[in-house]
Design brief:
108 residues; alpha+beta; 4-stranded antiparallel beta sheet; 4 helices; 31% helix; 32% strand
Length: 108
């Protein structure tokens, strides 16, 4: 939860996002439309990374359960569903994303 440190500074909170593709073979057999949507998905999260929101993101190459993973830093929990809802892969229905609070240790 967010705590005010001073009137000008707010402590950020962290969440782990897990995105699940529509099938385990998705990274091997994407259609052209799916590939285009995934490029939009990557661009979306790169933009969030440039804004300092996404600290790290990318695919997890687990053969039996591949998924995407992101660690994000936000001001409050209400931002998280909005970030997910605006992800092009989620909008298109090719990914579902769940999120959990994380007690991240970040070197500043």
């Amino acid at each position: 939860m967010s705590h005010n440190i001073s009137s000008n500074n707010t402590e950020k909170i962290h969440y782990m996002l897990k995105s699940t593709p529509p099938r385990t073979t998705f990274h091997q057999d994407m259609t052209e439309d799916e590939r285009s949507l995934m490029q939009q998905h990557i661009s979306y999260w790169m933009d969030k990374q440039n804004q300092g929101i996404a600290l790290v993101f990318g695919p997890v190459l687990n053969p039996s359960a591949p998924h995407g993973l992101a660690i994000i830093e936000v001001e409050n929990e209400e931002q998280v569903p909005k970030l997910i809802a605006e992800d092009p892969a989620v909008v298109a229905g090719i990914m579902t994303t769940e999120f959990y609070p994380m007690k991240a240790i970040i070197k500043k």
